[in-house]
Amino acid sequence: MSKEKTTFTCSECGGSAPKWLGKCPHCSAWNTLTETVSEAVGGRNRYSAAAFSGLNMAQAVAPLSAIEAMDVARTPSGIGELDRVLGGGVVEGGVVLIGGDPGIGKSTLLLQALDALQRAGLPTLYVTGEESGAQVALRSRRLGLDHSQVNVLAEIQLEKILATMEATQPAVAVIDSIQTVYSDQLTSAPGSVAQVRECAAHLTRAAKASGVAVVLVGHVTKEGALAGPRVLEHMVDTVLYFEGDTHSSFRLVRAIKNRFGAVNEIGVFAMTERGLKGVTNPSAIFLSQHSEPVPGSCVLVTLEGTRPLLVEIQALVDGGGPSPRRLSVGLDRDRLAMLLAVLHRHAGVACADQDVFVNAVGGVRISEPAADLAVMLAITSSLRGRALPKGFIAFGEVGLAGEVRPAPRGQERLKEAAKLGFTVAVVPKANAPRQPIEGLEIHPVERIEEAMEVVRGLA
Ligand code: TYD
Ligand code: MG
């Protein structure tokens, strides 16, 4: 490794200072300086060092059309649901960041994936900074991987990890987790923003230079974002998040960024006694089993990646007082406030002095606006104490003017609902199919008040 020195860089303006200061000398922002390593080349930072290594000569450029477009080579991990979110498999030199709550199954999934890859003949390396080799071995026995040939390294020092990667030449390396890795070059504590960022940058460079596919495991803060700087997400090729309620057995892995595949694709797993098992037909797992319809519940057909999913949306409107609460689990809270305003203004449904709670069953996170109609119907149902009819589903975005906008790929959603035995649907007019769908009574609506009207007629 070349000689390196540390400087302090402002996260606001990118300016640097030779020592830590409370206030950035360039942009005067407070508390924004974090420690970084720069290669000491004539006092310039590492980025300009790269430019000067070419002796300051202009380089040849080529028009895009003259550059051969090569598809990246992917190696399927052998775990179908994981390959689905990765866009087909692991990519040579690709860096994947995988985040999620503690205990959700990150280490389990990655150990299973490494074992499958190793069995397929790829050399693998599992670097554990949180557990001892013995603990990893115990997990592998539990997973039934008794003769696993996955190489394990219990190490947290970056320089040693990089040297081991160079010496053992794995095709895929997992770093579990990036927050435990530290570099001797920095004086700040392991797990600090500066450490996490520098270590991730070094590992990313190593991946690109050597062609090793690197998977970084990242912790998630209470707010649900990856701990450490957001810059980690920019640095890597793919960002995956584990979702799900640790109390239920289902787990979702969602791609929120993927340079090599589609985003918002999800992989669905069930946590079993022997590790995570893929769920290939997940459409009905987020429904709770009521024998009779209950007030405040509406089934939404959402589209996650390429597959429709049926998710029960629950609402409770109750009590309240001068400062009522609005709480949402799995749905956006700002959007909830907006939907309540639209309900009031356009459908005459007032919850201004009531507490409103909404929940997407099963710990799934729903971000698409097509959930609006189901959320509003669940809220109204709870407020009035009247259940929606048996076998009822809804989807559609609702705008501020009270209009119901179409959702992408409505036909597919309706067909999936019909397949699972749902019988009544309220959907945006533009999503109404030209041909009837067997067993499904479809009510197309253009406005929220119209949807309320239809529902009143059904109950
Ligand atoms: P783990 O992969 O250690 O989570 P993370 O690395 O994200 O922190 O998952 C641990 C949880 O999974 C733990 O609560 C036990 C459970 N588990 C099973 O239910 N079955 C299994 O086969 C394994 C290995 C773990
Ligand atoms: Mg773990």
Q: How are the strands of the largest sheet arranged?
A: 8-7-9-10-6-11-12-13-14
Largest β-sheet summary: 9 strands, mixed
What is the CATH H-level superfamily of the largest domain?
A: P-loop containing nucleotide triphosphate hydrolases
| Basic shape | globular
Describe the structure.
The chain is of the alpha/beta class and 459 residues long. It folds into three domains: 39 residues; 206 residues, P-loop containing nucleotide triphosphate hydrolases (Rossmann fold); 175 residues, Ribosomal Protein S5, domain 2 (2-Layer Sandwich). It is built from eleven helices and 23 strands. The strands form five sheets. The chain has a nine-stranded mixed β-sheet, with helices on both faces. It has a seven-stranded mixed β-sheet with strand order 17-18-16-15-19-22-23. The chain has a three-stranded antiparallel β-sheet with strand order 2-1-3. β13 and β14 form a beta hairpin. The structure holds thymidine-5'-diphosphate (TYD) and magnesium ion.
